[in-house]
Design brief:
The protein has 258 residues and is an alpha/beta fold. It has helices at 2-12, 42-57, 59-66, 98-109, 121-133, 158-167, 188-195, 213-226, 247-257, and strands at 28-35, 73-80, 90-95, 141-148, 171-177, 204-207. Helix content is 40%, strand content 16%. Strands 3-2-1-4-5-6 form a six-stranded mixed beta sheet, with helices on both faces. The radius of gyration is 17 Å and the shape is globular.
């Protein structure tokens, strides 16, 4: 994983180069990294999927895309749990109008609903970073959009992985699904703020009720696409980390010890 991130830093440590004749230039490269771990039941996974589909089809999202400097974005998607789910990757699509957005949303809607074991946010960040660096597009903003309902408990530690991606010029935002206890002392939103998100203007949105998920996803996508400054209450506080970024790993070890 760290070898991958070292390559990432060498490739994207400087400002992105403009594509020839602007043909591959977009306002933002956005990767949607969606948690499908078994801590969520199928009803929650279904509503989560519907939230993304509805947000991508919404006029507010499409207007945000059209309002950028180039009026187009590049977007991709994958699902993760303890690993990247095989076959879940939807490769890069350029969206610049309603038809493009509907085509991408329909691809997502067609995916089967499944859940998997464990939670590796670090693997999700590495996958997202690799997809951004190897994409054929050029953008001044490069964003990994991570949604999840638990702490990292598999793969590499999340904070160092996050730090490497941020050093490479990426932004990581979070959607913390707080529908049930996550085991994160201080709350999953604080864990995401301290251990997962990073980069200029990074933010985390908490979701407390599953029926609020669709609105939260739409709000998140509009902020990411438009590049607007998030409200202060959802930005990462400029203080020393308060959360234990190894909380998930410690809980998993305690489970086996018992």
């Amino acid at each position: 994983m760290f070898e991958t991130l070292a390559i990432l830093m060498s490739l994207s440590g400087n400002a992105p180069m403009l594509a020839q004749a602007g043909s591959n230039e977009v306002d933002v490269k956005l990767v949607l990294a969606v948690d499908t771990s078994r801590s969520m039941d199928f009803e929650e996974v279904r509503i989560q999927r519907e939230g993304y589909v509805e947000a991508l089809k919404h006029k507010e999202f499409i207007d945000a895309v059209k309002g950028g400097l180039t009026g187009r974005i590049a977007i991709s998607y994958f699902e993760w749990a303890g690993y990247v789910v095989p076959g879940s990757v939807i490769d890069w699509h350029v969206i610049e109008n309603e038809d493009d957005a509907l085509a991408f949303a329909n691809r997502l809607e067609e995916r089967p609903l499944n859940t998997q074991r464990r939670t590796s946010i670090s693997t999700a960040i590495t996958q997202g970073a690799t997809m951004i660096v190897t994409s054929p597009y050029s953008a001044m903003r490069q964003v990994i959009d991570v949604s999840g309902d638990g702490t990292n408990n598999a793969g590499s530690p999340v904070a160092p992985t996050r730090d490497k991606a941020v050093e490479a010029g990426l932004i990581i935002n979070g959607l913390a699904l707080m529908l049930r206890p996550s085991g994160a002392p201080g709350g999953l939103d604080n864990y995401y703020a301290d251990c997962v998100i990073g980069g200029p203007g990074a933010f985390v949105l908490p979701v407390y009720k599953i029926e609020d998920f669709g609105v939260a996803v739409r709000r998140k996508l509009v902020l990411e696409v438009s590049g607007l400054t998030p409200p202060p209450e959802i930005q990462k506080a400029a203080t020393a980390p308060k959360s234990d970024c190894m909380a998930g790993e410690k809980q998993w070890q305690e489970f086996f010890d018992r």
